Fold these 3 entries.
Entry 1:
Amino acid sequence: EAQVTQNPRYLITVTGKKLTVTCSQNMNHEYMSWYRQDPGLGLRQIYYSMNVEVTDKGDVPEGYKVSRKEKRNFPLILESPSPNQTSLYFCASSWAGSDRVYEQYFGPGTRLTVT
Amino acid sequence: GENVEQHPSTLSVQEGDSAVIKCTYSDSASNYFPWYKQELGKRPQLIIDIRSNVGEKKDQRIAVTLNKTAKHFSLHITETQPEDSAVYFCAASPSGGSNYKLTFGKGTLLTVNP
């Protein structure tokens, strides 16, 4: 079954404790992306990657890191989480051509709470 | 960077009526405009998208129109049904060169009353 998976689905942590949210897709998609969703603010892009070893900042990259060492995986790293990073996080993937991206397939979401 | 404004933030219609959601964008380089539907507690899913080389696209009860000169695009849902109730997000992307950012609007909560 074609899918995007994220782990963990729920996480409660404390300020400053490094964490990683994993994202994996089995559709051989070139493009992968991370979003955060906050009430009243919609979806905001954190980072995206056009292919292996190619990453770029979205609109809200501060406090986050990503890596794309393999095509199927795109982990999101919070080196020192703070309460303002409490949010619902979505990973997404899509096909990408030389001049366009296509429909994004979203993962199920990760609910993160930082106390 | 790109800025996408979406209106209205909430919309309530009677079953069978039409619903229209409007978005404006700021970056004239944007050329890809998708619409996503998010039901309560679920992930966003694409319902329709349009690229800048066309002005309108239809898929059954859903249509999107694009006015590149005015930098706005709209989602039209006809003959609304209760299962259309959800949050709808528009988005815009330059989708080319070295920039493949996707910027979303803040969403519209559509409620279809039976």
Note: Chain A touches chain B through 25 residues (CB under 8 Å).
Entry 2:
Amino acid sequence: ILNVEQSPQSLHVQEGDSTNFTCSFPSSNFYALHWYRWETAKSPEALFVMTLNGDEKKKGRISATLNTKEGYSYLYIKGSQPEDSATYLCALNRDDKIIFGKGTRLHILP
Amino acid sequence: DAGVTQSPTHLIKTRGQHVTLRCSPISGHKSVSWYQQVLGQGPQFIFQYYEKEERGRGNFPDRFSARQFPNYSSELNVNALLLGDSALYLCASSLGLAGVDTQYFGPGTRLTVL
């Protein structure tokens, strides 16, 4: 069974601070990793699709890195803003299945 | 352009009944995937359909079935509903296979089984 683990489960960050969290997965047979942001009462929104070891992607204040050999990806948020409050999900493609982690719930404190 | 649409928004059923959920992908997208999401968990993969063929199936019982139509819209069917089927059902579409291409999610159908 493929397990995609995300940590921490929940995170409180002061507005203006930077933060990061982790997605871990078995490194064998890696194909692609996705990051999503899911705000309350909205649909999950795709942030990044990453396929290559060493990949780095950036979208505004959010960036992500990928290490397929050791089986992890980091998501970074620089200068957190209230609109960053959401659940951040990662998902892995394996054997024609898309496996999601449980997510990291990010709360931005004013 | 319209995003992914799902119907109905909410649904209440009783145990043993059957339910059909519908999804219309973004125009031009050929893949539709279905997910079940319960509180505290990430979305659980149910099916992916690409070009009207099943391309992936999650660990769900045979009570769950789906199909994709020539216009790429999709239906998810659940028979003999159980209380544990109560969840948010999400549909996502992508240009190509969901594992590689960006997925765009619909607003979901909230199913309550009494």
Note: The first strand of chain B starts at residue 5 and ends at 7.
Entry 3:
Amino acid sequence: DSGVTQTPKHLITATGQRVTLRCSPRSGDLSVYWYQQSLDQGLQFLIQYYNGEERAKGNILERFSAQQFPDLHSELNLSSLELGDSALYFCASSVVGSGAHTDTQYFGPGTRLTVL
Amino acid sequence: AQTVTQSQPEMSVQEAETVTLSCTYDTSENNYYLFWYKQPPSRQMILVIRQEAYKQQNATENRFSVNFQKAAKSFSLKISDSQLGDTAMYFCAFMTNTGANSKLTFGKGITLSVRP
């Protein structure tokens, strides 16, 4: 158990819908990262938050957004869902998030999203 | 931009034998970190080992060790005394140390099967 929690574990929805994935980081970690794992794209970085502020953006679609709340949990919002958004979405957390030597990322169990 | 290449899609090893998984990367940076993550059938991403680029000594964690060749940009993982529980997908990952962010860039992964 990494200490990172994600809910829900599975999500099945229809095209055009909107969903919210939730992540709670390990105790003491200030940075949260979101990754998408799909068969054709592999593991891709989406976005990083540090202590409530967006720090870095990767290959995140405009239909996707995220935020980190004062209690440090994070939510990833996916809207106007398409079949191609079906994937495993991981949240990871680390202490700082600035490339420091302590910045090992620990992953949650993931949320499997299926868009029908 | 950094890239990580894992050219072997699949490998198989007999239980109790030793296996080496290959990884190469490309970067213009001098300071960075390299990781191996394991993803068993449960889909959880588990940190196996970590290497700081500024350290000449290869990292070791129990049965897992790396061969880090900075000039060749090579980072292979050696698993000794392979166990059935080592059956998983293994991802090599790169993290920059420039201070702006610490996103992970992953290779496509290699599927390792340990035969009884």
Note: The mean pLDDT of chain B is 93.
